[in-house]
Amino acid sequence: MRDGNYNFRNIFSSIILAVLFFTTANAQDKWERVVNLHGKWKFSIGDKSLWGDRYFNDAKWEDIYVPSKWEDEGFNGYNGYAWYRTSFNGQDMPGKDLVYNLVVGYIDDVDEVFFNGHKIGASGSFPPRFHTAYNAHRNYYIPTEFIDFAGKNVIAVRVYDSEIEGGIVSGDIGVYTSKGDRGLAINLRGIWEFRLGTGQDRFNSVGEKTLASLPAEGWNDITVPSAWGSQGYGHYDGGAWYRKQFTIPKDLQQEDLVILLGKIDDSDKAFLNGKLIGSSYDQYDKKRYYFVTKDQFKAGVTNTLIVYVEDPQGEGGIYEGPVGILKQVDFSKYIRWR
Amino acid sequence: MKINTTALGRSFTLLIVCVFTMTLNGSCSGGSRKVNLRGSWKFSLGDNMSFAKPNYNDSDWERIYVPAAWQTEGFRRYNGYAWYRTTFEIDFTDNEPLYLELGRIDDVDQVYVNGRLVGGTGGFPPDYFTAYSVKRTYPIPTSYLIKGKKNVIAVRVYDEGGEGGIIGHTNVGIFSYEDYYEVGYPLLGNWKFHLMDDVNWAKEDYNDASWEDIVAPSYWEDQGFRDYDGFAWYRKKFTLPKDFKPNDMVVLLGKIDDMDEVYINGQRIGGTGSIERKWARNDEYRKPRTYFIPDDLLRPGKENLIAIRVFDQEQKGGMYEGPLAIIPRTQYKEFWREYQNENHGVYSLWSFLWD
After folding, report:
1. What CATH number is attached to the domain comprising A161?
2. In chain A, what residues touch B109 (CB-CB under 8 Å)?
3. Which residue ranges form the domains of chain B, and what is each CATH number?
């Protein structure tokens, strides 16, 4: 019975992978797996923030096969919180100059992922404002400074399942490298803040003045890039706001920069520190490159990037990378043959 | 009358050759052929950078016909790295504008002449990027060549899948654009190239050393700047002969996708389309560019700079079709008639069918 299920699951995940391959297989976002994370992980039902810690001792936890529904692994009928943990050797990663992503595949329903104790991604929304993201493919950027290239790296995944099957259910789980991200001075993949529009915003009227009316609080986490439809905002059509705060290193302070926002469905206006830096209307398939001069940002302190995205129908949001920052002098070299 | 009868005779021969090869292959170089490289080359699977060296001993290598997909030449189902080598003899004048034409290569290549890199298209793993549809034309500096002795070409190829190798659809050989010198100065070949826009890039004292190298005429998307629409600049420095007559000259820049503004030695000499408004609406990309050069702007015997600001609204972008040359205004009709005879008239019909 279990074997039968397992085979079925393999076939099923192959189909998902094939679909995934055909939808994401373009030259820009070509992913190569460098660490395979299929296999036995540690598992516990319940929920404690301590379990996200890098040094937490999980020796007494149960073993579970990843990916699989936890119902198939002996946790029949369980709905609610649970944690997964595993680790891998940093020496298995091919180099410090590459860019790495963690693919955790499809998770039913909501997750939050910690890498060596640092939160690197989340999809869906935990109770009390529960939103499922069971149809989101989890692909989270791992900031290079969190990686231990010489020793053990710990992954902890907090999962909430509302009903029926739960857990890290399918996908090609592992650590990946993407050439699209290579050569960026700053990678902005990862967790951004997000809020839906008020319904009053319109692409033409949104401007620098609109930013003042945005509340400081009440933003949710969202993974960028990823369509919001697969992150718990199901069939939402309309305007929404993305916000990212980041520090520009001092060595870039004399440089004119390019802000890369990847592909956005459909229209966007981008603001850096309150000033409009670029916009595109109804161009879901075009990569965004917005140019800023050195007087438009401050190096060494926090800068704020706000992107208004409007999507009249279908999937919406900043859905494909690269997302990051580059020196203008390096831009031609970066673009070439990617 | 600057075009002598020999040149006309040569052009006529070229016209015949071109019409013939185009009928067969749908493409033509526009220059005159100095070395025919069609035929049997040495061939080895695998990858080793010492294969690029001119003294490498390839006597135990396989033979292969060029141009042809290696899949049809006995290397069925092979994907991956392979090298081609051949030798040739050539006679030339110093600084003669010579071009190596290899046609289409599946998927990625790097070409060495006597051990020195002359060009490459596409991306090798791990940054793999196919360029199988791009016709390869690489300028060869005459300083890389040895007159009247054996010269070595080595071509490194990576094939991700499909046919593999130097697959052709064109002439394979070394061509000269020397004819251009008889009336003016050629601007084909290597240019410096940078995306984005800055008025300072028109200036002579701007240092473009960190810019990318690009070949013109060729769409910039075919040279690796894929999916890029917007501003970009081309710059080329060139030294005119001491006896060059600087007055009453025009510059021909062929066709540009979509709009342009041209500077010579820092001075704006012309432009096509409303480039500031970033709105191409009059089929600017189809218009052959001819701009008058103000008298005394060109400097004989010294270095000169031509800088071209281009805006591409959509699709492939850049200086995509010749002729690229500075010629006397009085030679305009003559030059165009020859160029069209040699190349252009039939080519546009074929390029329509081909693309």
Report:
1. 2.60.120.260
2. none
3. 32-176 (2.60.120.260), 189-321 (2.60.120.260)
Q: For B240, how many CA atoms within 13 A lie in the half-sphere containing its CB?
A: 23
Query: A309: domain range?
Result: 186-335
Q: Under an 8 A CB cutoff, do B127 and A179 touch?
A: yes
ipTM over 0.85: no
Residues pairing with A187 in the sheet = A324
- What single-letter amino acid sits at B127? D
- Dist. CA B204–CA B292, nearest whole Å: 20
Do A192 and A133 lie in one domain? The reply is: no
The chain-wide mean pLDDT, for chain B, equals: 85
Residue B105, C-beta contacts closer than 8 angstroms, at least 6 positions apart:
B121, B122, B131, B132, B134, B136, B155, B157, B165, B166, B167
Alpha helices in B80-146 (DSSP H): none
Contact B127 A291 (CB under 8 A): no
Picking from B122, B195, B230, the nearest residue to A337 by CB comes out as B122
Phi, psi of A234 (to 5 degrees): 0, -100
Residues B287, B272 contacting (CB under 8 angstroms): yes
Residues of chain A neighbouring B195 (CB-CB closer than 8 A) = 331-332, 335
Same domain, A207 and A222: yes
Contact at CB, B126 and A337, closer than 8 angstroms: no
> How far does the CA of residue B283 sit from the closest CA of chain A (Å)?
22
For the whole prediction, is pTM greater than 0.80?
A: no
Burial code (b: 16+ CB inside 10 Å, e: under 16) for B212-238 equals bebbbbbbbbbbbbbebbebbbbbbee
Question: Is A291 in contact with B195 (Cβ distance < 8 A)?
Answer: no
CA nearest to A32 within chain B: B126
Over its C-alpha atoms, chain A yields an Rg (Å, rounded) of 20
Phi first, then psi: give them for residue B170, nearest 5 degrees. Answer: -165, 180
CA-based nearest residue in chain A for residue B126: A179
Residues A153 and A287 in one domain: no
List pLDDT tens digits, range B192-218.
999 999 999 999 999 999 999 998 988
